[in-house]
Amino acid sequence: DGFRLNGNPRAAKVIYHTLLERHPQSDGALLARLGLAELAEGDAPAGGGAREAREQYLAVVNGWQDRPVAVEALFRLGQSHQRAGEFEAAGAAYDRLLERTDAGPWLAKARGALEETIQALGAAGKSVEVATLYYRHKDLLSKPTLSPATGTVVGDSLVRLGLAGPAILVTRAVFSTALKGAHLERALVTLAEAYQAQSDLPRAAGAWQEYLQRFSKGRWSPDAQELVLTTLIRSEKRDDAEQFCRQWLAAGMLTYRPGGEQAGAYGTGGVLVCADLLVEAGDAEAAQGLYEGILKSEGDTADALWATYQSARALAALGQSGQAAELFGRVAS
User: C-alpha distances in angstroms, 297 versus 261, 268, 271, 301, 304?
Assistant: First the structure.
């Protein structure tokens, strides 16, 4: 250790390896493996030591399982995997640490590292792994409550796995914290999508309405507008739906869904629903503007065909029979 601490890693490695060869299960060998791991971690940025460090930590865990130092080795092993982007392996190391009865002072550090791993797995779309780690360590992660970043990831993963009920419980628990910004936006979306998965459209619409109040031009606003409107229409509240349309249109809040994000692609969402509502209400001029916006960007889709037909109807109502006939001809062909 003296050589290692005084900047002579080569001499330190020679002594460490000698100890391992002559006394493989001694306390000296344990210290040698820890020393080699530290040296390897120091070499990692230069491109060589991360794998060796993990091998040494694993050897400590397996060779000295009954020693408290094995807990620290598990934590260091998880950290090394995490830095390398090997999140499943990191989760497995933290798993082993948290199962030990002597984790003691490492529990808080392990919890923080576990949450980072869950978030990384969520970003990689690995919902099963997220749910597995969450349920395995639910008690630890939920005391006093899940952090906003982790809670939204867990809730979203549970929705994707079809576990809407548990997703709602997790997400609602997150609202007890001081949510704001991106975490609040994602939590509202997860809650709305979970209610939709349960076919509880009134509650889903309520969550989407709150989303629109807070994030009027957010990423999910087209989905929010569409579901709020369709829920009102199904509840025979067309006048309320029309009022929302006019309110959003006047405030510049009526937004198109970016292309490729959903099966309907660009132009679907609240815009098409609003245009149809305005036609039915006799406001062909306002509806025509919305249909034109859809047709400028839509390709050969069912929405584009429907918008063409409805646009023709609106033009006919406005007395522009020539243009209406041209659009009716496109629909027929």
Answer: 14, 11, 13, 11, 9
- The three-class DSSP label of residue 179 is coil
Task: HSE, CB side, 13 Å, CA atoms: give it for residue 7.
Answer: 0
Do 228 and 209 contact (CB within 8 A), yes or no?
Answer: yes
HSE at residue 296, side-chain half, CA atoms within 13 A, is 7
Q: Which two tokens stand for residue 8?
A: 């002579």
User: Which token pair is 7?
Assistant: 């900047």
- List C-alpha distances in Å: 149 to 133, 159, 184, 208, 219: 15, 16, 10, 20, 18
Least confident range from 164-178, 206-220, 244-258: namely: 244-258
Question: CA-CA distance, 49 to 298, in Å (whole number)?
Answer: 53
Task: Determine the Cα–Cα distance for residues 170 and 142; give it in Å rounded to an integer.
Answer: 9
Looking at residues 64-87, what average pLDDT do you find? 85
Q: Can you tell me whether residue 268 is helix, strand or coil?
A: coil
Closest Cα to residue 262, out of 310, 203, 306, 221? Answer: 221
What pLDDT, on the 0 to 100 scale, is given for residue 51? 80
Extract long-range pairs of 301-309: CB within 8 Å, 24+ residues apart.
301/264, 301/265, 301/267, 303/264, 303/265, 303/267, 303/268, 303/272, 304/267, 305/331, 306/272, 307/267, 307/272, 307/275
Model-wide pTM > 0.85: no
Listed ranges 4-18, 27-41, 80-94, 150-164; the one with the highest mean pLDDT? 150-164
Structure tokens belonging to residue 27: 């306390």
> Could you tell me the CA-to-CA distances from 284 to 212, 296, 318 in Å, in that order?
26, 18, 7
- Asked if 154 and 191 count as a contact pair (C-beta separation under 8 A), the reply is no
Cα separation, 45 vs 308, whole angstroms:
59
